């Protein structure tokens, strides 16, 4: 029983009437009236709070013509009777009303109702609205978190199809759809916040769809010939001394000849850019005075991140990005984007309301059986519901836009297993993968999966279908373990060095399905891998709890930077070993920007929030002879790879001869010069010989001629002491020429030593030797 007083309606701090017996924030519908060209009445449970900024109403508001439901987004065009304007179209499946809100420089807001509804798309044409116009949406509907309904028209929402974004997400309480600071956090997400968010959130920008780079020619580098260089637009250019200060940290900076010259001298064929979609910073980082540096927190899938623009944020970032792509293409370098379609910056139920949550929470996100909660296969609070047609359309429209209008050549999909889930489980016949496979634009570009997510059954290395390549973390782990002396036997290493046929030799896949890497943005840099055994992430402000503890690293005898010349020499040798192993392996090698010059993050293996010298590339390293030599070695091995097709095979090794008088295309040798037996693969070994026959390469060239090349013997020795290695004699080789020795600090000229087959060669401690079979 309750008293009469308990039955009276009360007001929550958001100003929302709460019915007796109704949970806080679950308010009864209220009727509101907003004046436009003529009075328009909406009945909704959301309500409209008094705007903090000025709201234009009455006869000054523009006329809204019906417009068209396609294409989605804000598209400037010539409308009826030759009148120029902008067509606005927004999918908002369960909404009761939608307003497009136009903003002037002083913050004055004009709200225009979109009254046309076609197949759940609200649309209208606004005459006179031109490129450069800032805008957002207010979407009306029920507030009922218990059923997943979270409409709140007090919150200005970013258009999911916005081509450009002006402003920065700062996440004050006003941008949350619920009362962020509600005393009882257990139910805080159910209490509606009716404060206007418009003064505090970025706005979309209408962009002119002109194509100013139609003469651009894509490099179209075959997968087998590709070398990927993972870089951060801001971090790669921020400290470059030859890039003008006003261009550092921007798309224009990456397009500068000084940046491109380094890439071409190195010999990479593609840059893989860490996320450049518009992203937001997480609240927990802003509270600590940090920012999301890597950008894996997308909120605008069509907009280049505005902070990387040197030319302006009122649409100029689009043209600047296109010019960057054109400059890279002109240098023969492809552009691959790291994309985050698995989740958004709105996080879980306690996250901000920035875009999709306020448009149709249930339509865009995977919800749990309790619809208040989000299914989280990403570790970031939410997961996009890719099975839903409108979500799949958003993603594929975005992908096609970046290919056809922005000129990019491919994508690396963050946590791709989350995109491949059907209703719950990862499904390689999922709608997302099926749509990509049949799309005439997307099936022709480079597609790279990060083949895992954090959900049950999410680890899918080797499982993605043809057309896809994958980040191969099993390659990373095997190579790290070998060079730190932690492999129990050499079975796994053998597969990894030769294209991982155990993972990818099915369904017509090729060795280039494996993107080989030893380091990536996520984890230690290569130099830190040989300088630290434990993470040192204190600067992140999370008590060193963040980042993986499974580093498979060896510090060469001291934790962190050392003054010991022997330790430092050993570390540089290990770097040469790791880089050389990576670049000689079959598959697609991926380097991380700066690893070729000894970049360090001071042991931080999770520098996602370090937009400072920790995360930026230190170009002054090239002034130090030892790091210049490392860069020279990297370029030299890449030149070898480019010159010799036997080092970038298009088919898996068969272990058989291609011709009656040929040799097997692949052979393995122990250090005493005999071919390895099955028992050798199951025994510990620090020394491994790998023979690659250039006379036995399957396939033909573009003119139908057989592909032939030199043959090579690579000797990998991870032991702490020198070892004798007997060079295989006939029929493998009469003589060998030494072309590479990682024990040497100076790599300016090849060793040039010629040795007879059967000779006992002394292999220096911890080194890679590459020998060419001499005629």
Automatic annotation (TrEMBL):
Q: What is this protein called?
A: Glycogen debranching protein GlgX
Q: Which organism is it from?
A: Streptomyces stephensoniae
Region of interest (Disordered), residue spans: 1-29
Per UniProt, the keywords (alphabetical) are: Glycosidase, Hydrolase
KW Hydrolase (keyword) present:
yes
CDD domains from the xrefs? AmyAc_Glg_debranch, E_set_GDE_Isoamylase_N
Q: Which NCBIfam families match?
A: glgX_debranch
Q: Where would I find the Glycosyl hydrolase family 13 catalytic domain in this sequence?
A: 230-641
């Amino acid at each position: 029983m309750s008293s009469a007083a308990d039955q009276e309606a009360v007001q929550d701090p958001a100003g929302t009437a709460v019915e007796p017996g109704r949970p806080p924030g679950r308010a009864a519908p209220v009727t509101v009236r907003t004046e436009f060209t003529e009075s328009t009445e909406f009945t909704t449970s959301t309500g409209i709070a008094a705007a903090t900024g000025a709201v234009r109403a009455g006869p000054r508001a523009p006329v809204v013509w019906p417009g068209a439901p396609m294409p989605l987004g804000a598209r400037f065009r010539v409308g009826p009777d030759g009148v120029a304007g902008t067509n606005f179209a927004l999918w908002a499946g369960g909404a009761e009303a939608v307003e497009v809100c136009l903003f002037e420089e002083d913050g004055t807001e004009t709200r225009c109702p979109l009254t046309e509804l076609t197949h759940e798309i609200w649309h209208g044409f606004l005459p006179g609205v031109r490129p450069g116009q800032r805008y957002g949406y207010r979407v009306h509907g029920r507030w009922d978190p218990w059923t997943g309904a979270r409409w709140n028209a007090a919150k200005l929402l970013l258009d999911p199809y916005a081509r450009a974004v002006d402003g920065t997400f700062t996440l004050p309480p006003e941008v949350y759809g619920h009362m962020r600071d509600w005393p009882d956090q257990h139910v805080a997400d159910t209490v509606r916040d009716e404060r206007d968010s418009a003064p505090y959130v970025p706005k979309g920008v209408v962009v002119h769809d002109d194509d100013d780079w139609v003469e651009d020619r894509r490099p179209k580098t075959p997968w087998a010939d590709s070398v990927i260089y993972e870089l951060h637009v801001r971090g790669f250019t921020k400290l470059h001394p030859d890039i003008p200060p006003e261009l550092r940290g921007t798309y224009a900076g990456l397009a500068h000849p000084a940046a491109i010259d380094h890439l071409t001298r190195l010999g990479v064929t593609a840059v893989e850019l860490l996320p450049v979609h518009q992203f937001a910073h997480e609240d927990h980082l802003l509270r600590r005075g940090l920012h999301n540096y890597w950008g894996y927190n997308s909120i605008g899938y069509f907009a280049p991140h505005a902070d990387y623009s040197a030319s302006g944020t009122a649409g100029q970032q689009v043209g600047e990005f296109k010019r960057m792509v054109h400059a890279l293409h002109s240098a023969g370098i492809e552009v691959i984007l790291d994309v985050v379609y698995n989740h958004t910056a709105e996080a879980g139920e306690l996250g901000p309301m920035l875009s999709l949550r306020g448009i149709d929470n249930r339509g865009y996100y995977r919800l749990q059986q309790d619809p208040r909660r989000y299914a989280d296969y990403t570790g970031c609070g939410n997961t996009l519901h890719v099975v839903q047609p409108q979500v799949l359309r958003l993603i594929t429209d975005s992908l096609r836009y970046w290919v056809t209008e922005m000129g990019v050549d491919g994508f690396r999909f963050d946590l791709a297993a989350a995109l491949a889930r059907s209703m719950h489980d990862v499904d390689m016949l999922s709608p997302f993968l099926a749509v990509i496979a049949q799309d005439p634009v997307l099936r022709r570009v480079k597609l790279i999966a990060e083949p895992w997510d954090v959900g049950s059954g999410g680890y899918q290395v080797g499982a993605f279908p043809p057309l896809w390549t994958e980040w191969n973390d099993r390659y990373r782990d095997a190579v790290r373990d070998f060079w730190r002396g932690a492999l129990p036997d050499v079975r796994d290493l053998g597969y990894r060095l030769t294209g991982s046929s155990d993972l990818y030799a099915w369904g017509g896949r090729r060795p280039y399905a494996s993107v080989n890497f030893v380091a990536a943005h996520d984890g230690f840099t290569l130099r830190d891998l040989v300088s630290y055994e434990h993470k040192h992430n204190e600067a992140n402000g999370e008590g060193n709890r963040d980042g993986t503890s499974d580093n498979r690293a060896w510090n060469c005898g001291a934790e962190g930077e050392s003054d010991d010349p022997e330790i430092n020499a050993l570390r540089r040798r290990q770097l040469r070993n790791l880089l050389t192993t990576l670049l000689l392996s079959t598959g697609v090698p991926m380097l991380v920007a700066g690893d070729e010059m000894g970049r360090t993050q001071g042991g931080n293996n999770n520098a996602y929030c370090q937009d400072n010298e920790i995360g930026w590339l230190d170009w002054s390293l090239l002034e130090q002879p030892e790091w210049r030599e490392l860069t020279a070695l990297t370029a030299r091995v890449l030149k070898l790879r480019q010159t010799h097709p036997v080092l970038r095979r298009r088919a898996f090794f068969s272990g058989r001869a291609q011709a009656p008088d040929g040799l097997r295309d692949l052979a393995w040798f122990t250090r005493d010069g005999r071919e390895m037996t099955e028992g050798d693969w199951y025994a510990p070994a620090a020394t491994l010989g790998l023979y690659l026959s250039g006379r036995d390469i399957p396939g033909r060239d573009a003119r139908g001629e057989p592909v032939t090349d030199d043959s090579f013997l690579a000797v990998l020795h991870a032991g702490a002491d020198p070892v004798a290695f007997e060079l295989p004699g006939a029929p493998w080789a009469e003589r060998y020429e030494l072309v590479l020795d990682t024990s040497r600090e100076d790599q300016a000229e090849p060793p040039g030593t010629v040795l007879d087959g059967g000779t006992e060669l002394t292999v220096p401690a911890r080194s890679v030797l590459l020998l060419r079979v001499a005629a």
